[in-house]
Design a protein that fits this description.
heterodimer, A: mainly alpha, 0% strand, elongated, B: mainly alpha, Arc Repressor Mutant, subunit A, 2 domains, 8 helices, globular, disordered C terminus
Amino acid sequence: MNFDDGLRAADTALDHRLYAAGNALREASATQVEATSALRVILLHTDPAPEEPEQQAAPSPSSPASSLLRRPQRRLALAVNLLLVLAIGVGFLIGVQRGKDLGHLTPVPPPSASTAVPSTTRPIPARTVTSVPEQCVKAAELADQVISRLNRGVRDKRLFLALRDYTITSQACRREASP
Amino acid sequence: MGHEPFDEFYLREYPKVVGLLQGLLRSRLVAEELAQETFLVAYRDWARVGGLDNPRAWVRKVALNQRGSFLRAYLRQQARERDSVVQYADDTIKLADDHAEVWEAIRTLPSSQAQVIALHYYEDYSVAQIAAALGRAPGTIKAQLHQGRRKLARRLGTGPDRRST
C-alpha cells in the first residue's frame, strides 16, 4: 500500500469516525435535551415584538393560559426584586452610617494661623471616607445575579443557589455592618 | 406568506443547537444557556427571523457568533461563584467514549476550524451552507475544513501509516 492509498484510507476512517460522532451527539441531544420546559420559560417571560397590531385583539388560543400563568410569576419576580433592592438599600445606609460614625471619631485639627486671614477661596469640606463591608458588596453582586436570572427566566437550581448565597451573604453583611 | 410558528421551530431546533454548542463547549449548562439566549433573540424578533430564507442557519450563526462574548461573561461569573456553586455531575450530554474522544479532539482545534468541522459533521452542512451560515468565503471554509481534519487525524491517530510508503 503506497502513501496515497494510506492517506485515502485514513481519510475515510477519519470521515467515518467524525460522522459517527456527529450522529451520536445529534441523537443524544435529541433524547437528552428537554426543550419543552425551556420553551415555556421563553414564552412565559418574554414579550416578543408584536408581529401585527391586530394580534392583541385576536390572541392565540394559548394566550389566556399564558397570561394567567404569567401574572403570578411576574408578581413573584417583582416582589423578590423589591426585597433585594430594599436589602441593598439597608446595607448601603448601614455602610454610610458607619462611615459617618468613623468621621465623628476623627480628631479635628487645631485652627492654623492661615484661617485667621480672610480668604476668597471656598473652604474645602472634610472628606468622609465611606467603608462598605466586603460582604455587603458581595451581597449586592449576588442580588444583581439573582435579578438577572429572574429577568431571563432562569428558575432552576442555579437561581436557588444564587438566592441561597445571597441570603447567607446578606446576613453576614448585616452582622459586619452592625456596631 | 405565513411562516412557521416559533414554538414548532424551537422544539425541533433547540436540542440540535444545544448539541452543537455542547460539542464545541463541552459544558451542557453553558450550551443550554447560550442556546436559550439565542432563541430568546429569535423569539423577540420572530416576525422578521421567521420570515428569513433559512431561520435554522440564522440561529446557528447567532449562537456561534455570541459564543465568544457569552463564554467570557459566563466564565467571569463562574469565577465569582466558584466558592458557592455546586458542580453538576452530569454537565454533559452522555456519549460513548469513542465519540466523546472525537468531540474532545474537536474542542482542541482553533475556534474557526472547530465550528466548520462541527457544522459539517454534526449538521451535515455542505461547504456552501457553512459559508452562508458563518458569513465566510467558501474557499476559506474548504481550507479550514482541510486543516481541521488534518489536525484531527493526528490527534485521533487516524493519520496514514507512513511506514508503508
